[in-house]
Batch of 4 targets.
Target 1
Amino acid sequence: MTTSTPSPLTGSARAGILTYMGISALVYVLMMSLGLVMRLTQATWLDLPPNLFYEVMTAHGAGMVGISGLAGSGVIWYFLRRYVDLSTGILWANLTFFLTGVVLILGGIFLGGYAGGWTFLFPLPAKGLGAWGVPGAASFLIGLLLIGVGFLLLYLDFARAIIAKYGSLGNSLGWPQLFGGSTDESPPAAVIAATMVLIVNIAGILAGAVVLVLILVNLFMPEFALDPLLTKNLTYFFGHVFINATIYQAVVAVYEILPEYTKRPWKVNKVFLAAWTASTVMVMAVYPHHLLLDFAMPTWALVMGQIFSYLGGFPILVVTGWGALTIVHRSGIEWDMAARLLFLSIFGWCVGVVPAVIDGTIAVNQVMHNTMWVPGHFHMYLIVGLVAMLFGFMYYLSNQSKRTGIDKVAFWLYLVAGVAFSFGFLTSGMNSIPRRWAVHLPEWVSFSQSSSAIAAVVALAALVFALRFLTSLKHARTT
Amino acid sequence: MIQGAVFLVSAILMLVVAATFIFVALNASKKAVAYPPLLEKSYSMRAKFFWVLSIAGILILVVTTLDLPYAATRGDVPGNAKLVDVDGRQWFWNISQTEFEKGDVVVFSVTASDVTHGLGIYGPNLRMLNQTQAMPGYSNALEVTFGEPGEYKLMCMEYCGLAHHAMVTAVTVSE
């Protein structure tokens, strides 16, 4: 597979993609600011009452997951439309559902007082003990449900368009080439990735919708009893799949843009096809690694959680990471902002795999889970991986990728502070500091103080990236 | 201490990843070389990398799953163990026994009465010794050996509402 042939991007479709990415840029900076507020509170430099801290925590979690979903879907939509006939109306419908959901979520949190965390672990939404009631929790949960409906429409549209062109999802995953000995040219990477994402996300969103509806019924009819372990399985299946799928969408930017820059093709060979088929299974099968401390789960399921945690690292390291290194090495690439950020993002993804896989080891999970180690791993792969990938795409999209002095400074600040901030979490995890605590023991405060200063630098650098994109929209690509 | 070893191993592996990316980044903008031979060499190296990862992964998997922490929950409780009931509620712990002696093997039977909590047991040095989930309707057996005297803190590890961070209690281990 070589680079795609750019097709015109005009009118409503162009406006849609720019709106997706513009909102994402703004929300990332805003959510990073909320994260900073949390670290400042834990550092005792900000006097935020616990109820407000946990509201901010809930908004930060839901906001980051939601906006990563929106931004990731924007990236893959931009490239996928070069190969299949997507509906612009659905693109806008998804955004409408998303924004409506956001209003309900923010209302539930900051007006209704809901602070049950973005994971809404049953039966906590119904047990606010006076901090929040049914209206706040219901508003939050319905907001999530609406966002899910929007994404479901989007991925169903992906499925419709892909099947219309390729005949089946097996064909668009390259199974005839992988298993059937077909010598036809494989589908492009964007189509393969979109197929994987639509499969896992439709399954994940449906599981999420089921558990959200069940909890909503329980909210209004407490006698409608639910099993906490079953609902936790559904919640983490949905949550893990959805957040994990964000980077599998955004990585299409790497597959499409790096070949343009290096004048080298990104080969879609059997190894690539096998990796994406394997990822389709593994992204869905790995979620029990969130339940390793639920001893009541069947042992085989927990051991499978560890096995799939290990296997999940292979496609990232061996295929995408290795592929990015190969295509860039001695290529004569010009390191403009898009190239830098995209390359950095693959580093962030690969390096973030390490603490994740290690925490997926049952023996390690016993002493590391729900400590700061966990946000350490996912901040590494979100800040240095996913968000860098998205800002790299935004520089590319806005045609403003030539580096200016401030871009260079922002890039290095983002890289160094992003890694340091994540290591602050990992070091805290090593010291057994729990995650999601509004108030830390005095022995732990210094960790939060150093992290606060670093978090401010990350947010500042992201603000530069966001402003560069938002002030360059008129120059954005039309193909 | 397992946490220190975990951090060290993670940091070393992450440094290896970082060194690889830095090497490629530093050479990337040099004069371009022909791609097909580079690709062939890369694929050959990747195959070796795959096998190294696979063999290491299988070995680590086998070693780390030989002794799983689920035996006591399945009924395999050490004969000398003291059995202690723990019940988590918003936002306190009910514990059937809080005084122990050095060397005691204790199996905590952990559950919750309202929402899901997490029981983390911290040694006198504030490092976590072991943890499990405390979930309504389920009982998880958590085995801990109190190896040294002092105050051991029991903290909530699963977010459970506004006073989650205050859900801390202690047990005492004497000589």
Target 2
Amino acid sequence: MEDLSLHIIDIVENAIAAKARRIEVSVVEEPGEDRLTIEIKDDGFGMDEEVRQRAVDPFFTTRTSRRVGLGLSLLAQAAREAGGKLEIDSRPGDGTKVKVTFQYGHIDRKPMGSMAETMTMLFLGNPDVDFHYTHVKGERSYTLKSEWMREKFHDQASVAPDAIQWLKKHLQEGLAGIGVKG
Amino acid sequence: MTKLTIEDLKRIKEEVRSSTLLREGGFRAKITIHMGTCGIAAGARKLMSAVLKEIEERKTQDVMVTTSGCAGLCSREPMATVEIQGKPPVKYCDLNEEKIKEIFLHHAIQGEIVEAYALARGSETTY
């Protein structure tokens, strides 16, 4: 994976596969504290303790189609390489929370990448999921929720051209407003 | 009053068909971008962004775009499946932005399969 915004899609896709209806994505950039935290919380199936402990093992997967599962292990590796770590909190029926930390200024910390592109595709590709996205940088923060988009475009398909335009603009302007390159 | 041409009638037919499908909550074409770890690492997000850009620019109203997990053929990613209502889905592999734009225009809009990029015809398997 080239950047962290691509890892975020990957972890959110896990949540969608676990039949989550509500997914919270939070990115907190604290350059002053030399810390970057990404949290993805869902209300999907969750995992039992054994699966949770083995989830970051690349040679463990719950799939039957193949014997490797790289999503979480790649992200855990990216965190380790940048002086951080990946933690999973999960219980069957209670959903899953994946929390990843990085040293913000670490030379090997992957760039954030385009959160505008990531969130645009997640929102539009999954109209049935309730997304709640928060991005904090220093003292400023930006939030976008699926319900806002639904209120505005309630009688249209979520892939309607004007919904795409609205969403892209909201994300680009909102992220630029907190000093994050979309 | 200006005369209606064949092109005008075709356009009106398309507009009415699009709005009817939308009212019924349906769609004429569905594009599924495979977003497993393998697909994402191979560039699937670029495909999704390219499709959304085409919809936005062409003001397309009746194409649904969604994502799915790994289809089991990681070495042929990025992949996408195109489904026209009432017809079998077609899987495309080894894609890039240019190829998906071509597929969007020829298959999703005009209904003609782009055989050069197709992997196989058949139904989507969910593992």
Target 3
Amino acid sequence: MEPLMRISDLKTRFHTQDGIVHAVNGISYDMHVGEVLGVVGESGCGKSVHALSILRLIPIPPGEIEAQEVWFAGRDLLKLNDSEIRQVRGREIAMVFQDPMSSLNPVYTVGFQISEALMLHKGMNKKQARERALELLNLVGIPEARKRLDNYPHQFSGGMRQRAMIAMALSCEPKLLIADEPTTALDVTIQAQIIELVIRLQEELGMAVMWITHDLGIVAEMAKNINVMYAGFIIERGSVHDIYHQTRHPYTLGLLGSLPSIDEAPGTKLISIPGLPPDLIGLPQGCPFFARCAFRAERCRLERPVLEEAGSPGHTVACWRWQEIDAEKLRKAVGGAL
Amino acid sequence: MSPEQKTLLQVKNLKKYFPVSRQFLSSQRRYVKAVDDVSFDVREGETLGLVGETGCGKTTVARTILQLYRPTSGQVLFDGVDLASLQENDLRKMRRRMQMIFQDPYASLNPRLTVGAIIAAPLDVHTTMTQKEKRERVQELLELVGLNPDFVNRYPHEFSGGQRQRIGIARALALNPDLVICDEPISSLDVSIQAQVVNLLEELQNRLGLTYIFVAHDLSMVRHISSRMVVMYLGKVMELADRNEIYLRPLHPYTRALMSAVPIPDPDKARNRKRIILKGDIPSPLNPPQGCNFNTRCPMAAEKCFQDDPEYREISPDHWVACHFA
């Protein structure tokens, strides 16, 4: 089956006064129609920049995007002109951001902002667009939607704003919804509501979803596949089962070990990853995780590992020593290190 | 955790109301009841977790304990002394025994002071140490929190979030306090760094015999570090119990919902569990509902819950709950 999106060797750099920041360093993967992909990594790992690069929302300059191709539904997004890419944004690929307050315009009503997209992309008239906006607010579970259409964003709570953003994103029935940490600013009970909502909508509408997060707990529940990113590289990729139960990369193991589980026994120690992520201006020559890795060897310092198949089809890992590594060994190697 | 342990801190019927500016032509003064009749105690050497969502009053409780806010009513007994009744001078003497670690490691360190000066600040205020003694103490503290003692002359901007949080911890420990209140110390840090800081806090507790109040919204992390947990909602305590008891036998519907909303980093467990999804949002603390605070979102709410505020009572030894149906 032809993939919905094929990214080959995507690189994004920023030219700054201090030097070139290598934010995304040659990542490649496919996404299929209706697939839910989790993109996981910590701040500065390039997860958001890579998504913005797909939509070409990176300001150029100082940014620079380079790739063999960013294939989406039959064409290369990087080869489109400005008006063509605008047609893709919102209509075919929609994005929901972390902070709903700064993504909504405070001086227009929520109803107007949703209708605007419909009039622009779908050519609806004002009345049709308003009716459709009402349907969408109902779809995302906003109570008393008809009244709420005429509210301004400040009259909405954080969770409702995020619902409104999702309604807006869904207005043109996109093939792909990119959700960039949409629940990070929300309380856990509200986060649970939003996750439930996106899972339901994804099933109903059959769209593909890319969920970007730093929390491996959130995507465990909904994703089919996971990309784990570090320093602008995909360092491990596989099905949720592969990533959580057949973990191969020491960084992924560390991330999982850093999370307490709600049912853990008393006295369980967290596995912490020592040190800090590398500076993206002067990336090390070898493995980007070298300095923090409990399993590093001479080869890791000199040669950068590339993704290779690890055990099961579709499970790839960029580590020279993946065959020797598991959670037990990591626990022993790290011990009680601070 | 044995109940015979010495009680270090007792919070009794603590209330903190903040006045809200009067509305035009209205004579009535309105109040946000940020903390509304909260009672619990903290035992020597334990970690008491304080969890709840935005606006539940957990940070206000922490600040009121330290008398950074003066309570509207109620008592805060530290080692038997009611802090609320102390004058500034006497309070200052008590304060050296209680310290705080703040949420935002960027805002809580003065950017114009060196790390050495930041950590020495409590020593300047509370001790008569000489410059040399202070310098040695600062280096000792830096080492204790896992930072290079040669960093004394650096400025906060030269450090990452996790390292800054270590500086904040060193400052809090400078005076050898008995009680450290950690107010969301890890919520602004990356996952891998969170584990570093939590491990450090645990190790320091073992080494120095510290007592912690750990305030956070992340239930799984609070459960990880705490011996007992207090669950708050809209200014009130909903439930208090031992970390295992609250996980195995949560009695309050809010605790159950909160527990079921925690993301589980395991695809099989995450997909098989039954989630309790609460309806709606947290009501405004300016205008809390009649009766039980939680009645607008409670899946079990009955008529009684809209009339009477449930009594906060001890349902089994050391397990407290405020619900009509518990």
Target 4
Amino acid sequence: MANDILIEIKNLSMYFPMTKGIIRQQKIAEVKAVDGVNFFIRKGETLGLVGESGCGKTTLGRCLLQLIRPTSGEVYFEGVDLCTMASDHLRSIRQRMQIIFQDPFDSLDPRMTAGEIVAEPLRVHTRIRGRELREKIAELLKIVGLDPSMKDRYPHQFSGGQRQRLGIARALAIRPSFIVCDEPISALDVSIQAQIINLLEDLQGEFDLTYLFIAHDLSVVRHISHRVAVMYLGKIVEVANRDALYRVAKHPYTIALLSAVPIPDPIVEASRERIILRGEIPSPIALPPGCNFHPRCPIGVEICQKEIPSPREIEEGHWVACHLA
Amino acid sequence: MADSRLQIEKPERKERGPVWDVFRRLSKRITAMMGLVIVVVFLLSALFAPLLAPHDPYEHSLADKLATPSWDYPLGRDELGRCILSRIIYGARISLLIGLIVISIGIFVGVPIGVVSAYFGGKVDFIVQRFVDTMLAFPGILLALLLIAMLGVGLHNVMIAVGISTIPIYARLARSSVLAIKSRQFVEAARSIGSSHLRIILQHLIPNSLSPIIVQSTLHMATAILWAAGLGFLGLGVSPPTAEWGAMLNGGRLYIRVAYHVATFPGLMIFVTVLGFNLLGDGLRDALDPRLKT
């Protein structure tokens, strides 16, 4: 069990300081974007990470890849802690882990051609040059479903879906084993979303990839993930196998989220109960005491206001951070 | 007829690349095209001065001093009887040289300072920007005068002095462009790939921050010419016989009541050339505006 784990995160936290003053900076508050997160991802699996906007999903993905150095905690990649690694060493390990970005209009350099974009990782990490490089670029473009003859075009000459394919080709170029997909489809048209999801699934089978799939669309996560983690205000509130989570969610936040997913059947849709959460998501600067979720929780009791619930394994592989679950 | 037009328009537009794109957008503006024409004429006369000038700019004839315009000497003769038109054409060379060197100093020193300052941020940025602030606090021409006082009179020193005084402007400009670019996802993508700082700066940051710098340098060409002429007028630039617009203006100043043409034509040349570069710069600013691109 232990040795098929590719990534393990222990107690990962990222606090962004809010400072005052220019010369002598004083810390006046902290934004707890990620707060004591633990989870692991097995080789070849897709872990879906869901939560509402601003809950820290993206920050968590960035911290995992050390694009932002986390405040504390450990990230083990194949048993090696990345958080304590020097930047030089980290640069070479970046070949093994890549990221696909949310916005395909912002993630490609507008002054580089498609071919140059895909070639960049190869230039950085390998000695492949000249004709071999050109062949490799053509191969990569073909893998993601683009015509190799498009390699001399600039990003603005591609459509959104094609640009996202380019982003995927760039991530694949150096054959990583782990890819963070940071809401890779939320900026795309619905018809294109399915194509990109299918492409990601095909690539996972072909290249033995492990994904952390960040999204806020629960039905997409259900489709692609093996396991799902639910995040609320910087904390993971529930982790479970996909089917278990969608069938018997335990955490009241997860239940509320699931009840908000529209069902494409008007009769069922009209008759089912929808849980509407009270109030607004609290500010991550001033977190409520006790359970983060208690001000909005439909079933909260007294203990929720005092004690922070720690995650408990209520069934094999099903972790919930709730006093009442 | 309709068929052939369709064929011409569609495939060619895509192949020609970004430079052609900019030119196409530039060509839609009359003022920008006027600027371009003036600049091209200026460049051609600087490059082909010996072929274009009707007379030797240094050949003097005291008997014909201050002669008014005639067929042989279209702009007349100056206080030493030299052909003003020829001197203006040769003067374009000096102006072009000054402009190019000043801008090169500004760009090659200022841009790296600004890019590094913005990219690394924090303390580096703070310290570098305070230096830039200090330099910007001096009016440019005053800074140039100060530097000439230190370096001594002469064309080289004028170019160095004006060049140095433009460095903070380029540093600030490059910094602000990079600040806008460095938070974009493609820069983060480059970091996630494992690119080095140097690679990110050279491959991603500088190419993407270039358009405001191109615009600025076109406008600066005008300023540099004006400053160099100003310093030439004050007698701090080239040494006497050399044909230079500012010095010619100064030479004609004494005779303005008797012979208007000696000071007027070099002055007009400065005016027209500066106007040309300004119009072109304004046009380029619009043509390079990223918001127009999709």
